[in-house]
Amino acid sequence: MYAAEQPAYSDRIVMSAHLVTDELKKKLELKLWDIANELRGKMGADEFRDYILGFMFFNYLSERMRRYADKILEADGINYRSIDETTGEGRRMLGAVREETVAQPGYFLKPSELLIEIASRGAKPGEFILDDLAKILNAIERSTMGTESEDDFDHLFEVWTLIPPSWAGRLKRAMS
User: How far apart are CA 11 and CA 17, in angstroms?
Assistant: First the structure.
């Protein structure tokens, strides 16, 4: 009777796996909270959440644009990020990509405006990318003017504070 009450060997393995998985999830969750708390410093949790969500949304738009543009250029064997924006040929290609992307997915970003490019510029000592990012967000809104997606993007980025109030004093000191 005792043997009949015991779970089968395979069921015990599955139960053990669930316990390990739950334990790992808890450890990972605690580690992620520790990292987030360290990153946000003196910034409030709600302010930090909104700040990070803004970057996550911009990353989504950026990657969506890159994948869509790469698909458009695939037949020509061209990678979107490799387009030279300073040449006539590059500007012609960007014009063609822009024409297609403002229809679907509904906005346009140049390769130099993709988050991965901005982040690589920001990784260089002395580079301040938040001004560039503000200009790019405005450019996204402008790219939708006169299109079906204009209402979707109109004032979309106004709620995202690129320089949170808790950082303003420190940034002013660092910039002077």
Answer: 10
Quick one: how far is CA 146 from the chain centroid?
A: 26
Query: Mind listing the pLDDT tens digit for each residue in 76-103?
Result: 999 999 999 999 999 999 999 999 999 8
Q: Which amino acid is at 13?
A: I
pTM score = 0.69
Task: Tell whether 127 and 167 lie within a shared domain.
Answer: yes
Q: Are 131 and 154 contacting, i.e. CB atoms less than 8 angstroms apart?
A: no
Q: Which residues, other chains included, contact 77 with Cβ-Cβ below 8 Å and sequence gap of 6+?
A: none
1 in a structural domain: no
First to last CA, the chain: 80
* C-beta atoms surrounding 124 within 10 Å: 8
Note whether 73 and 153 are same-domain residues. Answer: yes
Is residue 107 within 8 A of residue 140, CB to CB? The reply is yes
